[in-house]
TrEMBL record:
Domain AAA+ ATPase: 24-310
UniProt-annotated stretches for the region Disordered: 284-304
Official protein name in the record: AAA+ ATPase domain-containing protein
Taxonomy, superkingdom: Bacteria
Length: 503
């Protein structure tokens, strides 16, 4: 399934599409000098994808806090204790709320420390909360510098380690990094190298043009084109964008930053006594204390947690839609089964995290406009366990299968798929599944773990395992009064065999 968002236009006026699902797996690097339109590009990406995926923005200048008014992002002030930042980041993942971590007003050391703590907390979330998240880091060279600067070594290591985790190891945890930088030469190479998608904007220094051309597969003669790119124009490359370098003009945005580029305006008419006006001090001037810009006061943590606990507001729709037509329970279940079948048809689905599959399932249900409240994660896991068992419609309608479903509830959610896989073989009188097939049902490649799972079921009194004269395995279910036919434990994964035959 592809969810493409409109980033603008390509040459000829055709829309420039960005595949969000592919972006979640391959990450994105944006590069361009100040004034090239990087922030505008990020804002377009965030606005267009807000309804499809959870977003976390690391915002050093407070430019993206305006997303909260239009799209419901929670604004988190970075001037907090480590415990507060960890707690907020954990709840961000748990409740799947989009947020902006505003670091405006903090010193460079404090910005790096706050960003590092927040990103590490997102990375360390419990496995149950590994939902897909688009993590956008503006001015990434501040948080992943190529060399040490005036900041402390402790803050630099903390921030660089968090950025490395995001780009190198974040994909399995649902974290998809989108990093933007003014200069590639200032960005740590091990962070930049993990991106597979690129949007390269205007740049002037030879070293940055050479690195940009190298990432896009261009020669040095073609690198000169980066000097001539107008504001808001980028060269795109990557599996989520284009297989060949493609010039893209970024489209308009709905929100705006609090700060804008300076504009020319005429000078006022000079007064006649301009020298006296400038050099004569005000009598009260020395009595006034110096005025310094203070950082904005942070919101109380209780307010943040209260906002996180509320349901996320739905994006404002430009036009009211007609209510979804009423359908029967059977029709709704059929739509849900179709969405689930499409997901499980992917050979790699068995080895993807449940939270990632759940997010994919919800997107497919929205595309099909399935009415009613969406399934919860436990209900989705239960439905997926039944689907992975491979039970046929005739068997599913029998009383013995209903007893097998009840019996499966005595094991944990992650084991129900394995239990039902073996149970359906017993109910249907099929051969006992091989270790490879059982391992796939559990989401692993380890045959040893598959044997341990069967041993665990036997310890719980759910099954009895024995062998025939040829040494083939038989699994009996005393509560169901049935058992599998003998099966070779070291046999192949039948799912792989069927797939190879189809190919």
């Amino acid at each position: 399934m592809k969810v493409g968002i409109d980033m603008g236009t390509v040459q000829g006026g055709a829309p420039a599409r960005l595949d969000i699902e592919e972006l979640l797996a391959t990450r994105l690097l944006v590069q361009g000098n100040s004034g090239s339109g990087k922030s505008h590009l990020l804002r377009r990406l965030l606005e267009q994808s807000a309804q499809w995926v959870q977003q976390v923005i690391i915002d050093p200048e407070g430019d993206f806090v305006t997303l909260s008014d239009r799209f419901g992002h929670v604004v988190v002030d970075g001037e907090r204790t480590e415990a507060e930042l960890v707690g907020i980041a954990t709840r961000i993942r748990q409740h799947r709320v989009s947020c902006v971590l505003s670091l405006e007003g903090l010193e460079a050391d404090e910005q790096m420390r706050a960003a590092g703590i927040f990103l590490n907390a997102l990375f360390d979330a419990d496995r149950d909360y590994w939902y897909p998240v688009l993590v956008v880091v503006d001015e990434a060279q501040l948080f992943a510098p190529a060399a040490g600067g005036e900041v402390s070594e402790e803050a630099r290591k903390l921030s660089l380690g968090a950025m490395t985790n995001l780009m190198c190891r974040g994909r399995k945890r649902g974290l998809a990094g989108v990093i933007a930088t003014q200069r590639l030469a200032k960005l740590a190479k091990n962070v930049a190298a993990e991106a597979s998608n690129f949007l390269m904007g205007r740049t002037f220094l030879d070293i940055d043009m050479a690195r940009a051309a190298d990432l896009l597969g261009l020669d040095r003669r073609q690198a000169e084109m980066f000097r001539d790119l107008p504001r808001g124009s980028f060269v795109a490359l990557g599996p989520a964008l284009s297989r060949r370098p493609l010039p893209v003009t970024i489209g308009a945005v709905e929100t705006s930053a609090r700060s804008t580029s300076p504009k020319l305006m005429p000078l006022p008419d000079a007064p006649q006594d301009v020298e006296d006006l400038i050099f004569t001090p005000d009598p009260d001037e020395f009595a006034r204390p110096p005025v310094r810009r203070a950082p904005p006061a942070p919101r109380p943590t209780t307010d943040i947690l209260t906002e996180l606990s509320r349901a996320r507001p739905e994006p404002v729709q430009p036009e009211a839609r007609a209510p979804a037509p009423e359908i029967s329970v059977e029709e709704r279940e059929s739509l849900l089964d179709q969405a689930l079948a499409e997901i499980l048809a992917n050979p790699d689905a068995a080895f993807r995290a449940d939270a990632e599959l759940f997010q994919d399932f919800l997107v497919r249900c929205r595309i099909r406009r399935v009415p009613g409240a969406p399934l919860s994660l436990p209900a989705f896991r239960r439905k997926m366990a039944v689907a992975r068992s491979g039970v046929d419609p005739e068997t599913a309608a029998t009383d013995v299968w209903a007893r097998a479903l009840d019996l499966s509830r005595s094991v944990t959610e992650d084991l129900q798929g394995v239990f039902l896989l073996v149970a359906q073989a017993a109910v249907r009188g099929l051969a006992c599944p091989s270790d490879a097939r059982i391992a796939r049902a559990y989401g692993t490649h380890s045959a040893r773990r598959a044997r341990r799972l069967l041993g665990y079921f036997e310890e719980q009194g759910l099954v009895v395992i024995h062998s025939d004269l040829a040494g083939h395995r038989i699994v009996a279910f005393p509560d169901l009064a049935c058992e599998t036919l003998p099966g070779d434990a070291n046999g192949p994964d039948l799912a792989d065999s069927h797939r190879d035959a189809a190919e």
